[in-house]
Amino acid sequence: MYQIKNFFDNDDVKVIDSMGAFSVVEYQKDLSVMPQTAMAAYYCSQMNVRKRQVVCDVSKSNVTVQAGAMHWMVGDVKATTGLKGVGDFFGKTMRGSVTGESAIKPEYTGDGTLVLEPTYKYILLVDLKDWNGSIVLDDGLFLACESTLKHKAVMRSNLSSAVAGNEGLFNLGIQGNGIVCLESPCPREELIEITLDNDVLKVDGNFAIAWSGSLNFTVERSGKSLIGSAASGEGLVNVYRGTGKVLLAPVR
User: Fold this and answer.
1) CA 130 to CA 126: how far, in whole Å?
2) What is the DSSP code (8-state) at residue 67?
3) Which domain holds residue 83?
4) What's the whole-model pTM score?
5) Is residue 168 part of a domain?
6) For the CA atoms of the chain, what is the radius of gyration?
7) What angle do CA 110, 53, 143 make, to 5 degrees?
8) What is the pLDDT of residues 151-190, one digit of tens each?
9) Largest CA distance in the chain
């Protein structure tokens, strides 16, 4: 048995979201300040620049987290590699090398509480049932997920998507039924959600942070010809085609 005091019952700590095995806590003010940093801390709290942490109830589900994200854990919680054999090891190593994600993401099992490192980024809890069981993430967004979900490297539809668009050739895709935790550069209140029904979305820049695995992603000229692209002033754009959803950030 264990007890946790001065965390969830702290007046400065607020639970701002909860889904599945995950809860997101937000520190309303930074109380650990000195006189020389007090002014910056005050304006940070007023502008929603606050520390946030993900709390995982491992008794509800095994969880997989980004390597190095663990802050502290209590109870009968065990950290494993999540590997299921030599083939799984080589597969995850290969996926990590092409997506830029950590090759091995630790899996936590048991019956206790796991708390991830604090961050000033915004934490999004996403239920994959709202994405038809498949989502593709921009680089660096993955923080944690329920271990029932499958990870795979998703290749761009053509080589030009990487070379011409100055992007990587692969993204991390997550499939299944469960909850994913993302570290977003923007709060949920500012994210634009676009639902496509056999249609096309064109974006100038990498403002899309996540999109449905059912969408076809390429990089194309904004116009039908080089002259048309030059005239529009946009050049190359990211194109999402098909049926599914896209999350757009207003700034990156």
Assistant:
1) 8
2) T
3) 13-248
4) 0.84
5) yes
6) 20
7) 70
8) 998 876 655 545 554 556 788 999 999 999 999 999 999 9
9) 70
